[in-house]
Task: structure prediction
Amino acid sequence: MKFAMLLAAGISLGMIAPVSAQTQRSGVQSFQQDNDSWRRNETTSQPPVISQSMIDALGNSAIANISDSEAVFCYQVAAKPAGYKGYTIDNMAVTGFCGIVDDNLKNMIVQQFLATPENISSDVAQCVIKPRLMLRFVRGVDYTDMLLSSPCHSFSVFYGGKLKTYNFSPAAEIIDVMVESFRPKTVPFVSPAMLRQLLPIGVAQTQAQKDMVAKQSGPIRNWDTQKAAPKKTEPKKSGWNNLKL
Result:
């Protein structure tokens, strides 16, 4: 109960809230309240140590996207009804966007879902998964998705076309708190592609973003570091036909 209250407070303080639906429709902003939101939390809580069993089950690449994520987006989702033609994520209907998770809140979530084995039951859940929230952990252009379900309390991890589901009934209250706490932060989803938002292609758009890229050390643009070309060694000339006269 104590942690659930702490998590609710963390969600209240640890979200970069989306702007209004009207502002989204105008195409001014849709994923952040201001261009300097990344500056807000220069000091964050220590990242949790993900259990080895989770790393083995999900794979190093899926875990790297979570532990080293550069942004975590929250979406409200539901089972896709027949004939649905709206936006989807992992074949589920996107019913809203609930903000960007900051690093402190991300660490709280990762700690409870991936680093606390006692929150997971080995029993097969005897219920039908009902999608509620999808958290997308993005690193570069790669990502790992985490789906939260209630009242069939479980979470599922999507990566590389593979799916792994866990029975989270021992810590059901945590999912309930997250679902309820994210609900008031949800606004209608508007596609960034439709709004012609160019940042997802990896090009800094503002001076603040350019300054951030300039200060970063890896993994940003490490691949284009110029290396001195090795000196070519001339083959040693010998023999009667190479005499200099």
